[in-house]
Amino acid sequence: MSKTVSIIGSGFSALASSCYLARDGYDVTIFEKNKTIGGRARQLKKEGFTFDIGPTWYWMPDVFERFFADFNKTPDDYYTLEKLNPAYSVYFGKGDYITIEDTLEKICTAFEEEEKGSSKKLLEFIDNAQNNYDVAIKDLVYRPGVSLFELITPVTIKKIGQFFSTIKKDVRKEFKNDRLAMILEFPVLFLGAKPDNTPSFYSFMNYADFGIGTFHPKKGMYQVILAMETLAKSLGVTIKTENPVDKIIVDNGKAISIISNGNNQKSDIILSGADYHHTETLLDTNYVQYSQDYWEKKIFAPSSLLFYIGFDKKLKNVNHHTLFFDVDFDVHAKDIYDTPKWPEQPLFYASFPSITDSNAAPEGKEAGIFLIPLAPGLEDTEELRAKYFEKIITRFEDLTSQSVKKSITFKESFCVNDFISDYNSYKGNAYGMANTLLQTAFLRPKLKSKKVSNLYFTGQLTVPGPGVPPSLISGKLVAELIKKHHSN
Q1: Pick from 285, 288, 297, 305: which is nearest to 418 by CA?
Q2: Under DSSP, is residue 409 helix (H, G, I), strand (E, B) or coil?
Q3: Of 359, 263, 303, whose CA–CA distance to 31 is shortest?
Q4: Cα dihedral sign for 2, 143, 222, 436?
Q5: CB atoms within 10 A of CB 104
Q6: DSSP string, 195-245
Q7: pLDDT per residue over 278-334, tens digit each?
Q8: To which H or E segment does residue 413 belong?
Q9: Which region holds residue 400: left if phi is over 0, alpha if psi is between -120 and 50, else beta?
Q10: Are 45 and 222 in contact (CB under 8 A)?
Q11: Residue 20 in 3-state DSSP?
């Protein structure tokens, strides 16, 4: 008889693990607290507009391909992928921006126009980044974070210095132009940490950016979730929405069942793709691995204030992805990581998927997503949301030389309180735990509980870390670990 697995949550990592486990013969049921699946990757549909509530960047397509290939499938079997050109643009002042196009050759031209001689340095930087990418994505990140020795290989020994320098040091040593340096430092923000606290080895994110490029699934990132749902169900996975898990029952140190909607669901194995900290609150205190003090001392990736806006006209002077770096990055970063508070002058990001995808908005209209990174745990009120919307939309109008306020037909927001209520997210963080040197690989919370047998974890608080591709990998790693300890 097949062993039963109860999975808490239905985000990328939970869905990925469900597919691997079902393929290997386990009887898998997913319990999702919300009405729709996807975890942080959900959709908002309103007045003919469609927004991805969560992730909007599709990077590292090879990781998605590798996931589907494990089931003899390809992404093309489920959704259509388009490479964006331009990938994104970065504003530094009014009408002053740099556009990052879809090939390294074009990006070199843009760098050279900004700073003579910088293209040669860029090629050398990206060559090293590609080498790191090959080591990381094809090998290191597919290790379960059990011990230090996973990181020690003949290749990584040669790169040991890159674990003790930082992205910021490496970039600023070669690129004196502040604007170009900021563009090269930007990709590691996806890892949830500052460039001056991220090991040099993570330059592989720059190869993901400049070497591979930025993509968009037609109809949005949620198509990836729907693809994984289709795959999971074809493998026999049962998915139950509106089924929050209130308790994990442990008997003699062994997880034996979960309580959901008042029902006791017995299970041979329990796997949580929900927030790690929250999951441990579902256990009796003597079975908790990581104390409150442990979590308090960790460096978390930012939370976010997000706005989803319907415009009644097409906008100009923006691209599908547009970054606004017209204020001091270091000051904003201090407000996130050092002395947490609402930033006076925030950097922000905007996405206009309807520029690329007609499914995102009615004809002649524009769908806009605006994001301000924030420290997790901040006070979150409607007054603060309104104040910060006014700040960024006024700057947006000035920087892009257009009037848009009167063209807003509706505006929805999502912030710290929503991350907590919708996802049980620790302090309302948006991206999990930052990938700093002391929070990498085996130094992250474990996939397998040290105190409760049959209890496992997956997702962005464990290995390999934050982001969509790492979440897919995390699902595979935990499934392999379960198979190793619980052969069917």
Answers
A1: 305
A2: strand
A3: 263
A4: positive
A5: 18
A6: GGGSBGGGGHHHIIIIII--EEETT-THHHHHHHHHHHHHTT-EEESS--E
A7: 999 999 999 999 999 999 999 999 999 999 999 999 999 999 999 999 999 999 999
A8: strand 408-414
A9: alpha
A10: no
A11: helix
3-state secondary structure of 111: helix
Question: Does this model's pTM top 0.90?
Answer: yes
Which of helix, strand or coil describes residue 274? coil
Task: Report yes or no: 325 and 91 within 8 Å, Cβ to Cβ.
Answer: yes
DSSP letter assigned to residue 278: H
Tokens of 458: 């997956």
Q: Would you state the pLDDT for residue 152? A: 66
Residues 370 and 133: their CA atoms lie apart, in Å, by: 30
Residue 384: strand, helix, or coil: helix
Crossing angle (nearest 10°) for helices 178-185 and 104-114:
150
Q: Report the amino acid identity of residue 15.
A: L
The two beta strands, 81-83 and 215-217, are antiparallel
User: Which pLDDT tens digit goes with each residue over 180-211?
Assistant: 999 999 998 877 889 999 989 899 999 999 99
As a whole number of angstroms, the distance between CA 8 and CA 32 comes to: 6
Angstrom distances, CA of residue 46 to CA of 126, 216, 251, 411: 41, 21, 46, 10
Greatest alpha-carbon span in the chain: 68
340, 378 contact by CB (below 8 A): yes
And the tokens for 82? Answer: 């388009």
Look up residue 323 and give its two tokens. 């970054």
Tell me how far apart the alpha carbons of residues 380 and 413 are, in angstroms, rounded to a whole number: 11
Q: Is the pLDDT of residue 244 over 90?
A: yes
Secondary structure element (H or E) that encloses residue 95, with its range:
none
What DSSP line would sit under 327-351, residue for residue?
Answer: S-HHHHHHHHHTS----SS--EEEE
